[in-house]
Specification:
Maf protein, alpha/beta, 38% helix, homodimer, elongated, five-stranded mixed sheet, six-stranded mixed sheet, 13 helices, Alpha-Beta Plaits
Chain lengths: 423, 423
């Protein structure tokens, strides 16, 4: 049989056509398909409309090897995926007795009578294979269609993943013949997307052609710019080395704005740097309101190097709990380099930390002035036995964007303080 | 002309077919279209493939009144949307001299020579109207196709929104004849999705039929369950009152797990409660690591009622900075009701707050025991002049889910402490 090389994903559910809910199941699905060498050629989102869904399935089968649907397998009349796919493939449906018993047993265990509507979940198109759902009542289905196949998965992410990593995986692996997609990611912060693109675009432009083209995608989010490289690999060491060399070339051109080339988030890189030196950190936060400490402690095991800190939203807390002289706040303002330095050194000394980091700024929308507009943020890092560093930033965007950029900039200033190359 | 009632959104870009990027532009677009009475009947995602995109546009025109594309309007060869739509509508292309001058002027202002590739951005299908892009070089385009229309918008969210809320809005308003979709949201926390559904499903089931059916969507995320109600309104007061009555019925059945019926997030509801009483809050956080204070201060103007707090990730900070007796931690463990109460009262007293809230727990993946497994979280609230409240929770999920649920539960415990009905 011809191996699967391309797939289309169809997400089903009227809620996915409202302003409230985006399809994210397809991202998980894409990762697993790519790992097996199957590329996603297109995606579609359909409401609970059997006729339109059947048309989408037929169209997808005209262009790809594998069609995967998510959603619409529940027990209600809105759940039309089984019928729509059966219709698209001109298959009759029958009640699967094993499935029926399993669904009844699920209700019996909970001491409930099975609602009649749940019978729908035992109806399967003729010739379909059941994919066991260990996390819910809606089973997945695998339906062969000549050399192609249609796979039906439930919409709840936990159930979809359980089937994807359970019954579906070996079936897909057996039918996929493509080389797996190899990926690399280069993470940077401190320069805007356009500046990163200017450096890397002339380099990676040349890699797009050739027998194993490397595709490069720039993603900008929350003060960080990521370069995603991917290439269909032939599984050889040479293919991997070629991608590693590409990462090395780009990272070398970008210099010290690169904080990881292995997908590690910035807070994990900072954590590794602290661990490597046996140092512990404390933070004093004003405008970020706890967001910096929250992100540092996102990492499992961060209690080894995070002591804690003080959220000094009000100036009185900066004075009482961080030892910032009231006269200094009076003279320079709470958002100033002397105050940030005093906060960083204050929290470091009071919590007996090796590294103290402080953020004070104006996140807006109010509180700005001509001299210090909204977006003015001062960040200081104090390291035991070394001179402190401090920097004033002017961030653009709304309150949430300014706060996020402040957290990223603070993490990056700590990273640079930890790096011996940038003491 | 027949007014627009249905639309399809096509997002263009190969990065949207990778595991890294979901289409979220369509959510913003859907809100704006719904506000004008245009329902989204389907969505599709296409790679940088002119032929497939042209096929998708033709298909969409076979079923809806309006097709909106996002992305693929840049200057490179990967940007195929203009050509694909022209192809789908069998239109020739020409260079628009006004556009060409505007693009050249943009480069001149920055003292740069315009790369030849940018000429592509001035190419427009015959008969297209230009939608000015105040935020970038890629203009939007409006192309009439008989009684239907195809609208091309750039992919960067900021540019898409600028055109959507600028040139596009009046054009769409003039062509849409449908009643706007009215929406309501009921936000709850403290009970699982299935329990909420069991209460509300029998009620709203009856509203699905009728001349103006009300559709209800349950969305569960991060420890909160939201019920979204929407109905095509005829613009009359009666229609609005009917939706308000539906909200009243559902909220009444759900009781005090409802924290807002106007879309206000929980941290804003807590903020309003504090403001109303003229009270100020301080927090002591262990396992949430600053996430609670960060969320409280997400709200603009929160400095009026948030003093700050202490992130006591290490036990020594609980003792030194919150006044928790070391012997108490020794006797009961850091994750215990006595310690949570001491932390809440400690931070309240030390920061001179009216309300103190404390979170201590085991977010995992390590640190659990048979007696206190991962997910055990204790939350306490101390209110000046009143008895404190404390509760022990057992949360499920990974570290991030346990931390998020802890933040939501802490906000909810404060909300209940502030509510006179639940003192």
């Amino acid at each position: 049989m011809r191996p699967f090389r391309t797939a289309e994903i169809i997400a089903v559910g009227s809620e996915l056509l409202t302003p409230f809910k985006a399809d994210t199941n397809s991202l998980v699905l894409t990762t697993r398909l790519n790992d097996l060498g199957i590329l996603v050629a297109g995606k579609a989102i359909a409401g609970d409309d059997a006729e339109m869904l059947a048309a989408l399935v037929r169209l997808a089968l005209a262009r790809v090897d594998l069609v995967v649907t998510t959603g619409g397998l529940g027990p209600t009349e809105d759940d039309v995926t089984r019928e729509a796919v059966a219709g698209a493939l001109a298959l009759a449906m029958h009640e699967d007795p094993t499935l029926m018993r399993a669904i009844e047993a699920r209700f019996e265990r909970r001491g409930l009578a099975m609602p009649a509507s749940n019978r729908r979940q035992a109806m399967v198109p003729d010739g379909a294979a059941v994919l066991v759902n260990p996390a819910g009542t809606a089973p997945g289905l695998w339906i062969d269609a000549g050399e192609q196949a249609v796979v039906l998965l439930p919409g709840p992410p936990r159930e979809m993943r359980a089937i994807l990593d359970g019954d579906l995986k070996p079936r897909l692996a057996a039918r996929s013949g493509g080389p797996p997609v190899e990926r690399r990611v280069i993470s940077t912060t401190g320069r805007p997307e356009s500046a990163v693109d200017e450096v890397v675009a002339p380099i990676y432009g040349a890699w797009r052609s050739g027998p194993l083209p490397i595709t490069t995608t720039i993603l900008a989010a929350n003060g960080q710019i990521e370069l995603h490289l991917s290439a269909a690999s032939d599984g050889s060491d040479a293919a991997r080395q070629r991608l590693d060399a590409a990462v090395g070339t780009l990272a070398g051109a970008l210099g010290d704005i690169v904080f990881s080339v292995d997908g590690q988030p910035l807070e994990a890189v900072v954590g590794s740097g602290l661990r490597a030196r046996g140092w512990r950190i404390a933070a004093a936060e004003s405008c970020t309101g706890g967001g910096l400490l929250s992100r540092l402690t996102d990492i499992p095991g961060s209690s080894a190097y995070v002591i804690g800190g003080v959220v000094a939203y009000e100036n009185a807390v900066k004075v009482a709990d961080l030892g910032v002289p009231a006269a200094m706040i009076e003279a320079h303002g709470a958002v100033s380099e002397p105050v940030a330095l005093a906060m960083a050194e204050g929290v470091r000394a009071r919590l007996s930390a090796d590294v103290g980091v402080a953020v004070t700024g104006i996140a807006g929308p109010d509180g700005g002035s001509a001299e210090k507009p909204v977006g003015t943020v001062v960040i200081a890092v104090a390291v035991i036995g070394r001179g402190p560093s401090v920097r004033t930033y002017s961030f653009l965007g709304d309150r949430a964007m300014i706060r996020t950029q402040s957290v990223v900039a603070a993490l990056d200033l700590v990273r640079r303080a930890l790096s011996s190359a940038n003491p």
